[in-house]
Specification:
The protein folds into three domains: about 40 residues, no CATH class; about 130 residues, Rossmann fold (3-Layer(aba) Sandwich), CATH 3.40.50.2300; about 130 residues, Rossmann fold (3-Layer(aba) Sandwich), CATH 3.40.50.2300. Helices cover about 40% and strands about 15% of the residues. α9 links the parallel β6 and β7. The protein is elongated and about 80 Å long. The N and C termini lie far apart (about 75 Å). About 45% of the residues are buried. The N terminus is likely disordered.
Length: about 350
């Protein structure tokens, strides 16, 4: 049997007896097999966790891998996260495994079976949350996990690394206000992501503190991609009372805004100032070079990987780390014309 019983702790036979199932069923649950009825799997998982069942150290160390899981790998900032995890993995002689699964909220059901079979040193997830049953399965196999949190609102029992989204939104908007802009639009991210709402709240706070009204017609939700930024910006820029500046909730959306401005015959920053978010590599090479809020993506990934290793050693004292953002001023912002 692949999983071994640990002296002084519950045995697989005891778990099977308490759950009213066979030892082979318990073994299937331990190995992430999906051919077990959901109620039975949940019952076994809860018993394993309640009794502190853990794999032996020998089994846990068979695969010197750190797994990082995305819902999409073709986003430009994914490489920054991969490089951060790779730096920490290299220091301990581990390899990095990339997996694509699920939606932006959580990985798909097929992923859990694969990760339990691979048994990595730990898992880093680029998602908003993790279903309770996945948490139980990973914990019962001694597979630590950390979320690099794009949403900013993880459950209290989920180790996570994030960034200061509200402060970033505040800094971007204040920069535009200090330049003299009064009619400012925002294209934030999806409505169901806390980071989008936090950046929007930062925008509203800066506008309110400056005594400026926020026009509902200049507040839009995009998808963090170029196309979303382009489409939302076109809607704003074709208004008679168009904004003189737009804060885009990602650099990719900001590039879409730049393209929309050109489509409308506007020059950046003479006719329209644009601020992005993330400071991915392409930001400084756009034309004009993009003023943006730097989110320390690579450092977030390094911090998540280091937290993962501390979790394995039982040395974690905090399960939430939030890194600071900072404004990077380039060529896409200037005082309004006239």
């Amino acid at each position: 049997m692949e999983d071994e019983e640990m002296p002084g702790r519950v045995t697989l036979a005891q778990v099977a007896e308490n759950a009213g199932v066979s030892i082979s069923t318990v073994s299937k649950v331990l190995n992430g097999r999906q051919d077990v009825a959901a109620p039975t799997r949940v019952k076994v998982e809860r018993l394993l966790e309640a009794h502190g069942y853990r794999r032996t150290a020998r089994a846990a160390s068979q695969a010197p891998l750190i797994e990082i899981v995305f819902h999409e790998l073709d986003v430009i900032w994914a490489m920054e996260l991969i490089l951060g995890v790779e730096r920490v993995a290299k220091d301990i002689g581990a390899s990095v495994v990339l997996t694509q699964s699920g939606t932006r909220h959580s990985p798909g059901s097929e992923w859990i079976e694969g990760v339990l079979r691979r048994r990595p040193l730990g898992v880093i997830l680029v998602f908003s949350s993790l279903p309770e049953e996945y948490k139980q399965q990973l914990r019962s196999r001694s597979v630590p996990f950390v979320i690099i949190d794009p949403a900013g609102d993880p459950e209290p029992d989920v180790p996570s690394v994030g960034s200061a989204n509200w402060s970033g939104g505040l800094a971007a908007t204040r920069h535009l206000i200090e330049l003299g802009h009064r009619r400012i639009g925002i294209i934030t991210g999806p409505e169901d992501m806390m980071c989008s709402l936090a950046r929007l709240d930062g925008f509203r706070s800066a506008m309110g503190t400056a005594g400026l009204a926020t026009d509902p017609g200049l507040i839009a939700h995009g998808d963090f991609h170029v196309e979303g930024g382009y489409e939302r910006a076109l809607e704003m820029l074709r208004r008679q009372d168009r904004p003189s500046a737009i804060f885009a909730g990602s650099d990719l959306q900001a590039i879409g805004v730049l393209e929309a401005a050109e489509t409308c015959g506007l020059r950046t920053p003479d006719d329209l100032s644009v601020v992005g978010y993330d400071d991915v590599a392409v930001a400084k090479w756009s034309r004009p070079a993009l003023t943006t809020v730097r989110q320390p993506l690579r450092k977030m990934a390094e911090t998540a990987a280091e937290m993962l290793l501390r979790l394995r050693d039982g040395a974690v004292t905090t399960t939430r780390i939030e890194l600071a953002t900072s404004l990077v001023v380039r060529k896409s912002t200037a005082p309004p014309a006239g």
